[in-house]
Amino acid sequence: MKILMLLSNPFMVDPRVHKEAKTLVDEGNEVAVVVWDRRGEYGQEDLIDGVRIVRIHNTALMKVMPNDLFRNPIWWKAAYRKGLELYKGGFDLDTVHCHDLDTLQSGVWLKKKTGCKLVYDAHEIFGYMIEGNVPWVVSKQAFRMEKRLLNWVDHIITVNKAFQAYFASLTDKPVTIVMNCKELVYNEYTSPDNDTFTLIYIGLMTKGRFFPEIIDLVSGIKSVRLIIGGKKEGIYSEVERVCEKYQNVEFVGTIPSSDILPQTHIADATFILVNPSNSNSSTTVFNKQFEAMVCGRPIVLTKDTYAGRMTEELGCGLTIAYDANSIRKAIEELRDNHSLCEELGRNAFRAAKGRYNWEMEKRNLLKVYEKIK
Question: CATH code at 245?
Answer without folding.
Answer: 3.40.50.2000
